[in-house]
Structure prediction request, 217 residues.
Amino acid sequence: MIADKVKHLTATDLAPEMVGKAEGKLSQFGNVEVQIEDCYDTSFEDNTFDALLMVNLLHIMKEPVTVLEESRRVLKDDGRVVIVDVTGYGMPFFSKMALGVRYMKKWHSPAPYSRNFSPDELAGIIKEADFAVEELKLIGKDTKAVCLRGQKVKNER
Amino acid sequence: MPGSEKEYGYWGERASTHDNDYLYITGPTINQEINGWLILQFEVTDMVLELGCGSGAFQK
Prediction:
């Protein structure tokens, strides 16, 4: 879907096993590259990308602001971040409990550093890394997700 | 600071069954809603970098 819409997509992950899976899934797209990158310290030049996508990443990172600072570096001056994080925030108590039970049944232990973002918490992290929030919403009829689009603030710190 | 084995190793261990497990845990509805929002965020001229692409489930 995203690969069909954009000019070029560079999809990265630090886990080689995940990159292998993504390569198999995305090899049909001529405009997609998949490679191993460390989201805290990528190999890309400054001001390279129009948009930066992070789905279910920031809520499992030890230092999400550092990831956003690296994102800011590689984005063009008018670049934007597009962020989605699934969250238990805003879920009814028993739905949240059921989500946790399903998680533990499949993955047996919580992800290191995992947290449930509220929209305001995610917005605060974005602002700390010098992005302006353009759109922020909590979606989901049962399981919830925080969706945020942010614009790179042009003035350097 | 570099990414740590503690951060990415957890996911590497779960890569082989990740997509089905993720769908079981979160349910299909939220992922349809996420995809519906995501597709509106990009332009045909965009050069896009994804960090933490995982198994590639959200790009296809």
Q: What stands out?
A: The mean pLDDT of chain A is 94.
